[in-house]
Amino acid sequence: MLDGLPVVSGGFARGMMASRLLRLASRLAAAAPRSRAPRLALGAGAASLIAGPCLSSASCAPASTPPPLWHKCIAEAFGTGMIVQLGCGVVCAHLYAGSAIGPGAIAAVWGFSVALAAHLTHRISGAHLNPAVTTALTVTGKSPVEDAPAYIFSQCVGAAIASAVNYVIFSAGIAAMEVEKKIVRGTAASTASFNGAFGMVPNPRLLTPAAAFAAEVWMTAILVFSIFAIGDPNGGVPSAAAPVFVGATVAALVTVFGPVTGSGMNPARDLGPRLVTLLAGWGAAATTSWWVYTLGPITGAVLGGMAYQKLFADLLPKKV
C-alpha cells in the first residue's frame, strides 16, 4: 500500500495515482476559504470632494504612505496658479490684446481652467485650490485643521506667481490701454486698468461694496454647496466626472455674476493678482474692495458647506 492506494504495476498504476491526486487537490482547493480583495476607501478627508476612480490594477493598489504636506502644497500652488493663468489670462487677452472673445466664452474658459486644475491635482492634495474651499472643508471636519494654513499660503503663492507671469506678458498692452484711456496708474480711477484681469472691483452701476460682499457670499455658498454635493460619495456623480461638474458650476456662476462683481468666489484668485498690481505701481488703488473678495467668499463657503452637511448629507442612502 502507498498512502492508502493499492500498488498496481506499470503505467496504469501511475495513471490511477495521478488521477486520484488531481481529484484530491481539487477537493482541497474547493474547501479552502476564499479571500476577498480589499475595497478602496475613496473619499477620506479632503480628497472625498473630487476623487477619481482607479484607472488600472496598479493604481488601485493602496498607497504605502499619503503624500507629504509639502507635496500637497506644491499641487495646491500649481493648480491655483493654473486657474489664474488661464482664467485671468483670458481676461487679459480681451482687455489688453484686443481678443474678440465674449463674456460667455470667458466664463467657459474659467470653468475649463477649474476643471483641468482639479483633475490634475485631486489625487495629490484633494484639489481645494481656493482658501474659501479649504476653510469650509476644515470647519466641516473634512480636512485637517493643521493643513489649512499651508494650503491657503500655497494657493495665494501660486496665484501671485501666475498673475506675475500674466503681467509680464501683457504689460505693454496695459500701458497702451492706460495711454488710450488717459488712466494715471495709482489714482483711484486706475482700478479700471486692472479690474477683472488682476484684482476685482464691484460694478458701481449695480452694487455698493456692501451689496457686492453679499453677492460674493451668495455665489460662493452656491459653489461650495455644489462641490459638497458633487463630491458626496453617496451621491450620483461618478467620481471621475466631479472636476467637470465643478468646472461647469463655476462657468455658470461666472456667466451670471461676472458682470456684477467679477465673480470672485476665491480669495487667492483676488489676493495674488492684487499683490502684483500693488508692486507694479497701482499702490493704494490695488487694495480697493479687497475685503469683498476675501471675506465674502470665505463666509459663503462656510455657509454653503454647512448647509449641505446639515440639510442633505444624511438624507442620501449610504453606499456599501
TrEMBL record:
Q: Which SUPFAM superfamilies match?
A: Aquaporin-like
Principal subcellular localization: membrane
Which Gene Ontology terms cover its molecular function? glycerol channel activity; water channel activity
Its transmembrane ranges are: 152-176, 210-230, 242-263, 275-293
Membrane topology classification = Multi-pass membrane protein
Query: A single Pfam family, by name?
Result: MIP
Q: Which GO terms describe its cellular component?
A: plasma membrane
Name where it's found: Membrane
**UniProt keyword annotations, A-Z:** Membrane, Transmembrane, Transmembrane helix, Transport
Q: Which family does it belong to?
A: Belongs to the MIP/aquaporin (TC 1.A.8) family.
Q: What is this protein called?
A: Aquaporin
Organism for this UniProt entry? Prymnesium parvum (Toxic golden alga)
